[in-house]
Amino acid sequence: MVDKELVLFKLQELDRYLTQLRKHQGLTTDHLDKNLDQAWIIQHGLQLSIQLVLDIGNHILADAGKPAQDYSMIFDELAQIDVIPAEFAESIKSMAGLRNILVHEYTKVDMEKLSDLLNNRLGDFSKFASYVMNYLESK
Predict the structure, then answer these.
(1) What's the confidence (pLDDT) of residue 106?
(2) What is the pLDDT of residues 90-138, one digit of tens each?
């Protein structure tokens, strides 16, 4: 059974992280390249946010008897059980790869992608949360 309290707690944490990340919107790739302190803040905030999304997704999949073999499969699997639309899954699946880069290969972080996610894609996290809430309400 999906632990709704756990999922709701993780969604609240995600909202907190997004609130902090939004404070830094508008930072350019050039600025992040030159300002390591702010780049680290953005990297860590995004890493934590992505990890929450993946944890929530995997929790739901485990309840459905379909735990993902690796992070890259979580979004496709969530689409298969109608938690999120397939088109949305396709558009956000790169988050899993970014998480791995942020965790394991931090020297290879593409500041352009980081800036794009910060300035143009934070709404994806909120969309994900909305889909999860709808799923929980339907259970």
Answers:
(1) 62
(2) 999 999 888 888 888 766 788 998 999 999 999 999 999 999 999 999 9
Domain of residue 24, residue span: 4-138
Q: How far apart are CA 75 and CA 126, in angstroms?
A: 15
Burial classification of residue 127, based on how many CB atoms lie within 10 Å of its CB (0-12 exposed, 13-18 middle, 19 or more buried): middle
User: Over the stretch 27-51, which tens digit does the pLDDT of each residue have?
Assistant: 999 999 999 999 999 999 999 999 9
What pTM does this model have?
A: 0.93
- Report d(CA 44, CA 59) in Å as an integer: 22
Domain CATH number, residue 73: 1.20.120.580
Q: How many domains does the chain fold into?
A: 1
Q: 70-99: string of b/e by CB count within 10 Å (b at 16+)?
A: ebbbbbebbbeeebbeeebbeebbebbebb
CA–CA distances in Å: residue 83 to residues 1, 13, 129: 15, 20, 10
Quote the CA–CA distance of 101 and 95 in Å, as a whole number: 10
